[in-house]
Design a protein that fits this description.
The chain is of the alpha/beta class and 689 residues long. It has two domains: 251 residues, no CATH class; 409 residues, Alkaline Phosphatase, subunit A, CATH 3.40.720.10. Helices cover 43% and strands 13% of the residues. The strands form three sheets. Strands 3, 4, 5, 6, 7, 8, 9, 10, 11 and 18 form a ten-stranded mixed β-sheet that branches. A five-stranded antiparallel β-sheet has the order 13-14-15-16-17, with helices on one face. α2 packs parallel to α6 and α13 crosses α21. The chain starts with a helix and ends with a strand.
């Protein structure tokens, strides 16, 4: 009886909608496609919750529900964009044409194809979230178009279910097209007064336009509304991967005006705040109207010509190292070097990719949103770097790497800013197994011994090395014998052990040569990575930073407490080498009163700023004028303890650092000699040997 009682009401409602012209295909079909697009996006969020549920374990259901509600705004933007190609077709088609079978099938095929494309991007976004903890963003364009990234295609086809996914999506597309044919057209509703054809297209176009803008304010919606809490996983849950990909595409100019992302400060306040954060009693400021960090620093010891070997460890953040409270016994050789050298207990990376890590490690620069400065043409020959300073002191400067020199723009950035020689790829003297990325880490370290032995002994050397085994697809000698699939925890941890063993062999071999006693060895990770980076969040930006040199004054074994950064590496090396030097580094010598309060800044490509002043707390400044927060966490587990509003002074410090970095980059004044050069004079002086 209840079912019968509702039928007349349903019939009357349908009749009313038909008389108003709202069941005509010009209105019902766009609304149907918009609804399906939103449904696909919401289903994808449910899939993210189910597949990666451990990442949301600390989040309340209220916070997750708010993520879904906020996400509807982004879904409307994406759905509106998807509907736009259909509007002129259904708006302009005469009624007799809309009743033709071929017309219905053609329009349904287009709608199904658009929805299928959305489903494809959302499926890719699921895997992208699993790998990076973020929605589709600038990394897509960087990996797709960056030189030296050809291995990515192989990794995708080897480690992800590409063919089954495409087959499922093809079936999904056909099914969606059938839904559109079935529910997007009703011949009984395709007649009506002329005003229907005039009014509803205008009204619907306005509503779609509003959906795409996402707001009635003067500026269109951006990612800001998603930053309503401190947990980055819920922020990413709220976002829509297609929306963030569109935003990244819009930012392909490689730069963005900071005033569009943050509340900026006056230049004099910026200069004062950054000087207070960076300068120490040992610094003698040099009058510079553009760069407040221009200074001369006098080390605690006379100049000495020690060699420097700087090893950048791919993806190995604190969770892999026992001396930092991570998994004990996983990297015994690196832990032993930390115990017998100097290590920073709480050092943080400047970003989440190698190219961003190089900015902090090599240049002591905090990097910028969107594209890393190390990949931008403006830095060619104009940037201050550690090898550039050492070259002025007469050092031989080398980059040793198992992959191609041009990957991530490294040859241009390093070669034009102080590195004279590249020993890369097939130039390595020891080559036993080439992986998808290049020659494995054992070949790298064995080659380094031969290369360093062959250098002329009349000048000290600086050798920058970059590992690659601990990176997808995690290939190394014997990896094919493992029963576990590529990307599994067993495969990843085996890659970590392999790299650590190669490091142990490298140090043991170096001890046999006379240059060992005159060499400072530095080990630092570029960013977080791998299976042990859970739970995702700012705490996982913590990395190892080890200085090792038995018998070298200043490197007596000890642990340095307090917050430090990759940006402190270059000033610390210069402090160990002694003498005085002119520079503009954002970092400080952590061995000189290293336990006093310092800072670290992590800059995400989308513009999120993480400022660390204590080992267990981070100030989070979202882009697009989101609400800043302070997140307190357990340094030994990375889990969040407390979330509170951020002190305005900390927010201003983070923004000031970003503002100054942006200004110095664009004024070409992140180099004490840059003002003397014409911008077009920059050139690559390096050769690949």
């Amino acid at each position: 009886m209840r079912t019968r009682s509702r039928l007349p009401h349903t019939s009357r409602l349908a009749g009313a909608l038909r008389r108003l012209g709202l069941l005509h295909c010009r209105t019902r079909l766009p609304i149907l496609v918009l609804a399906l697009a939103i449904a696909l996006s919401m289903l994808q969020r449910l899939a993210l919750l189910a597949i990666y549920r451990e990442r949301f374990a600390q989040d309340s259901w209220l916070s997750i529900a708010r993520g879904f509600a906020t996400g509807l705004r982004f879904d409307l933007v994406v759905g509106g964009m998807l509907v736009v190609p259909l509007l002129p077709i259904v708006f302009l088609a005469p009624s007799w044409l809309t009743e033709r079978r071929h017309f219905k099938r053609a329009v349904a095929a287009l709608a199904g194809g658009l929805l299928g494309l959305l489903a494809l991007l959302l499926a890719i976004d699921v895997f992208f979230f699993g790998e990076f903890g973020e929605r589709l963003d600038h990394k897509v364009w960087s990996y797709a178009t960056g030189t030296g990234n050809e291995y990515i295609r192989q990794v995708i086809f080897e480690q992800f279910p590409v063919i089954p996914a495409l087959a499922a999506l093809a079936i999904t597309t056909v099914g969606l097209s059938a839904l559109v044919v079935r529910f997007g057209f009703d011949d009984r509703s395709n007649r009506g007064p002329a005003w229907h054809a005039l009014v509803w297209p205008v009204v619907l176009s306005g509503l779609i336009f509003l959906a795409i803008r996402g707001t009635t304010s003067s500026h269109a919606i951006n990612t800001g509304p998603a930053y309503f809490g401190a947990d980055s996983s819920v922020t990413q849950l709220a976002l829509n991967g297609v929306f963030t990909l569109r935003e990244a595409l819009a930012d392909l100019s490689n730069d963005i005006d900071p005033s569009s992302m943050y509340e900026l400060l006056p230049d004099d306040e910026v200069d004062r705040r950054v000087r207070d954060l960076v300068l120490t009693a040992e610094d003698q400021p040099i009058a510079d109207p553009v760069n407040p960090l221009h200074r001369r620093t006098r080390a605690a010891r006379p100049a000495r010509d020690l060699n420097v070997v700087l090893v950048v460890l791919e993806g190995m953040h604190w969770s892999y190292l026992g001396h930092l409270g991570g998994r004990a016994g996983l990297m015994p050789n690196l832990d032993a070097l930390a115990a017998n050298g100097v290590h920073a207990q709480y050092a943080f990376a400047v970003g989440g990719r190698t190219q961003r890590g190089m900015s902090g490690i090599v240049a002591s620069f905090p990097d910028l949103p969107i594209a890393s400065v190390t990949t931008r043409n403006e830095t060619a020959g104009t940037f201050l770097t550690l090898p550039g300073l050492l070259k002025q002191r007469g050092y031989q400067t080398l980059f040793i790497y198992g992959g191609p020199a041009h990957r991530d723009h490294r040859q241009t950035f390093l070669g034009s800013n102080g590195v004279d020689r590249f020993v890369v790829e097939d130039a390595l003297p020891v080559r036993t197994l080439r992986t998808s990325l290049g020659w494995n880490d054992r070949d790298l370290f064995r080659s380094a011994i031969e290369v360093l032995n062959d250098l002329p002994g009349d000048r000290p050397f600086f050798a920058l090395m970059l590992t690659l085994t601990f990176h997808r697809p995690y290939e190394f000698p014997g990896s094919h014998l493992l029963a576990s699939p590529p990307g599994s925890e067993e495969r990843q941890l085996a890659a970590v052990r392999f790299c650590d063993a190669a490091i142990g062999e490298f140090i043991a071999a170096a001890r046999q040569h006379e240059w060992f006693d005159r060499t400072i060895f530095v080990f630092v990770a570029d960013h977080m990575g791998g299976i042990l980076q859970e739970p995702r969040g700012p705490a996982m930006n913590r990395i190892p930073l080890i200085f090792y040199g038995p018998g070298i004054e200043g490197l007596e074994p000890r642990k340095v407490e307090g917050v430090h950064s990759q940006m402190d590496l270059a000033p610390t090396v210069m402090g160990l080498l002694g003498g005085s030097y002119e520079h503009t580094f954002f970092g400080r010598d952590l061995l000189r009163d290293g336990n006093r309060p310092a800072y670290a800044l992590t800059v995400e490509p989308a513009g999120e700023l993480f400022l660390y002043r204590e080992p267990d707390a981070v100030t989070i400044v979202p882009p697009m004028f989101g609400a800043p927060l302070t997140q307190r966490f357990d340094p030994e587990s990375g889990r969040t303890r407390e979330i509170e509003s951020a002190p305005i002074e900390r927010v201003h410090d983070a923004v000031a650092l970003l503002q100054l970095a942006h200004r110095l980059f664009h004024d070409l004044r992140y180099n004490v000699t840059a003002a003397e050069r014409a911008p077009g004079a920059a050139r690559i002086a390096a050769t690949v040997r």
